[in-house]
Amino acid sequence: MADITHWADVIADEVLAKGKKHLVATGITPSGHIHIGNMREVVTADVAFRALEDKDADVEFIYIADTYDPLRKVYPFLDESYAPHVGKPLSEIPCPCGNHKNYSEHFLEPFLAALEHLGIHPKVYRADELYKEGVYVEAIKQALVKKDEIAAILQKKSGKTPVDTWNPFNPICNDCGKVNTTIVTGFDLDAETVDYECSCGSKGTVSMKGGGKLTWRVDWPARWKALGVTVEPFGKDHASRGGSYDTGISIAKEIFDYEAPHPIVYEWIMLGQKGAMSSSTGVVVSIADMLKVVPPEVLRYLIIRTKPEKHIRFDPALPLLTLVDEFERLHSSDKATDYDKRMIELSHAAGLCHTDIPFKHMTTIYQVAAGDFDKIMNIVKRAGYDTSSEKCIRELVDNVGNWLEMYAPDNAKFSVQEELPVSTAQLNDLQRAFLSSFSAILDKSGELNGEDYHNLVYSAKEAGTELNIMIAESLNVDAAALEVNPKELFKAIYVSVLGQPSGPKAGWFLSSLEKDFLAMRFKEAAEYKP
RNA sequence: GGGCUCGUAGCUCAGUCAGGCAGAGCGUCUGGCUUUUAACCAGACGGCCUAGGGUUCAAAUCCCUACGAGCCCGCCA
């Protein structure tokens, strides 16, 4: 298929058909750890933003943290001391670790840091500040005045009859501090105040500036109007008929006289085989954890390669490596199509450095070197990779080390066995003859580099070499009749050292180990009879 | 009880909007690299496009129905 347009560019075209000036908005409630499911929203918004920029639209990009939402419950990661705070706005609750200004900042700070790494730079707003600054005052007034109209819209669209004390505005109780336990008893448009009664027994008056918030379904369209939002991605939870986007369209138009933003509905990210990512089920991979393991561009690519309305199946184990691989190939491929190039372009996160060492390959180097950076650098140099930027290599090494520790499946790991592996019992006579001869040669030779080792192993099959003659003698056959398959020899090496039939490139691998250790180990293996 | 999205090679997915020969990567297999088994290169294998019906000269693509997967609304309006 020729001329495949990336979804971001399709969206940009659709949006541009409506006008030239745009505001892309995204918002997340920082009620808990912000995970890579949430990341989809932000990356989706950023990609739409970039696509619009590329088409010379007059476009801005904002992120609104819903810091004024109430704490819904005591989440599993919170202790019971949070029970009295349930119902209070997140921005008014103490920080779990004590190092941040409040509860929402605790979760927001690492997330904003992650955004930087991902090359996403929206203008950041906090809902509590917007309310306190009075940005919502006009909307609150209209909502209070048109309360019944709003109720009618909600009833018609979502099919639910509101209770008679319902009000689009929820005052924050002056005494108990909760936002979901109050009812509105009156308001004064000139003084910009609202009267309330709270289930805690308190009665009082609050300001429209920071004294309460609009209920979510009204808050959202009010925000569109107040800030001028024209494009916004949101999860499918808001997207169904009767859902908050659906009611938002009507409320925006009929109450606030505003056209709802262009929707970008996205699906959830499924974690491995475990189902949807969700804080409540504990199926979560935080963005911070992912950034320890892969470059930010790969995370962007994960989101970008899939259309928003499709699930993304994400598995941080081996499939993640495949993803990294795919990205690296695409990045350096000269066969990339325009579509591929566009994806790479959109994946780009500024200020990053690249090495030409494949991630997958580094997992081997890392384990051969047992994580020792100097050894890793030696191996990398010997292999002829670009070592001009040690910093880049170190970043890669850190990622790989974390991946091995956090997500690598056992079959991707190997380790040099302390004791002779029992599987050496399976070695055949040729393999034993090879190992004992190999060991003897190692004993009397000087230091060998990777290539030496490599050549030495292959010399076994060439008539007239020392190793070839020794093997023939050991097997008591004529050297001319000796047939040697190097594959078998390599297998013998891996089994003796790692206890498994395959392993990393033999030359480098052996040269990274102590020669004396190898000589002894191969001798033991050759003689081992259970 | 309603609604939304998805279903294409062993795996992950493009292609569906705008109908025109069934695609890519990974994996597997084979071969090459005068031979670094997790490097690299080339090739091959691999499909009832979930199923059934309809529209059409022509359907993975549009329409209807069923099945499967995931999710949402109804509770916090």
TrEMBL record:
Name of the protein in question:
Lysine--tRNA ligase
Map motif 'KMSKS' region onto the chain.
276-280
Q: Name one GO molecular function term.
A: tRNA binding
Entry keywords, A to Z: Aminoacyl-tRNA synthetase, ATP-binding, Cytoplasm, Ligase, Nucleotide-binding, Protein biosynthesis
- What InterPro entries does UniProt report for this protein, alphabetically? aa-tRNA-synth_I_codon-bd_sub2, aa-tRNA-synth_I_CS, aa_tRNA-synth_I_cd-bd_sf, Lys-tRNA-ligase, Lys-tRNA-ligase_SC_fold, Rossmann-like_a/b/a_fold
What family does this chain come from, according to its entry?
Belongs to the class-I aminoacyl-tRNA synthetase family.
One GO cellular component this record assigns the protein to is: cytoplasm
Where the protein is mainly located, per its record? cytoplasm
Q: Does the keyword Nucleotide-binding apply?
A: yes
Native organism is: Methanolobus vulcani
Catalytic activity line of the entry: tRNA(Lys) + L-lysine + ATP = L-lysyl-tRNA(Lys) + AMP + diphosphate
Please indicate the residue ranges that the annotation assigns to the motif 'HIGH' region: 30-38
Q: Which gene encodes it?
A: lysS
